[in-house]
Task: structure prediction
Amino acid sequence: MVGAAGLGPTWFIMTGGALDGLCAAWYTLAEADQANPGRGLGAGTPLILSGANGSGSNANQSLTDGAAATGSGGEKRAGWARREREGIRKYVPRRAGGGPASGKPSIMPSQQILNPIVARNEQMQQILARAGTIAGCSSAVMLVGETGVGKELFAEYIHRSSPRSEKPLVKVGLAALPRELIESELFGHEKGAFTHALNQKKGLFELSSGGSIFLDDIDDFPLELQAKLLRVLESHEVMRIGGTAPIRVDIRLITATKVDLKNMVNRGLFRADLYYRINVMPIEIPPLRERRDDIPLLVDTLLERFAPGRRVTVSEEACRALVAYDWPGNIRELRNVIQRCALFAGETIREQDLPPEIRCSSPLEVLTRSCAQCMAEDEMSFEQVVACLESNLLRQALKQAGGNRAQAARALKMSLSTFRDKLRKYNIQESSGEDAGE
Result:
């Protein structure tokens, strides 16, 4: 509940991770105060957090000059309050000198506050910008990407950034619904329409009217029902099973798929007209192996989530292994690995704490993975990648041989003269050590 400015403290009844909503509301009120002083959120208005039961506590702790945290439950809430304070400090308006805010609030724009997606990768930034632009219209969106890339998060981001954000977002996992129930669940039914239809039931399209509906795994939508879905999208009307009159609905459709729908159309497994109707605004989400520069940031974010109140770091060796791994399960797999490590590792996650499939078993594996990363991210040519791999192999062999060129050449199964020529070719200046043994 938000109190009016000038009538006392501003209250937010919060449960769990409601910080995003709090920050968005604070931002809205602060902006109102800038536009109409005295009508929005005054700089001196305190911000109070309370438990869902509304009870207060005398142990209020200062967040900033104009904000306080109230715990319900005493010491049990202390850790929660600390974490919320740390997050709120990023958003609460401040003066340059440290006092209450005056002028434009120095907080994140509301769209960024609502964004649940962590990314610094340039390609991902462009995709997010595209998603933000698409959010402003009501056209159908199709999210394409491998399993675990975060298609549902993108659906949430688009909905929460859209004019429909105050209305419901209904999520439907089509792969998890029995095929015989999909029609009843989506379109609803009238009482007595079929055996065991004892009551009238509204379908999910009706329930999401005014908002958005997210159909995950649209490739699993039964072919025999695709014409009915197309009819809903074209006419904005839904007909319940056993119904006699169409029901008007206003929905924004967001679909997701992990397969090539165009290929399914060519094979006759998906209607072409429906494909073109839902593919108005396609967004292709890259797999994690194509945005490796986001992995350290994602790891830090996940550690904050799974190890609250602890300062868990990641060793350089473990970080290299995490970045080099291809992550077939994408962000979902990364989340599970970090959750496990946060539970069992100590203050530092080391390479031996990682699952066997992520730990690099040999230096050669590290090099080949690194070169594959260079080719994907730096747009190096094949010849450049081969030269990079060869020079790294030479350096690694020298390092393992303690600088002994003869020993390094034997390890690479080449003659000492060839080894020396390659060192000169790549201008590798290493301590020669002993060249004996050739």
About this structure: The chain has four domains: 10-109, 115-284, 289-353, 367-425. The chain has 17 helices and 15 strands. The chain has a mean pLDDT of 75. The first strand starts at residue 10 and ends at 13.
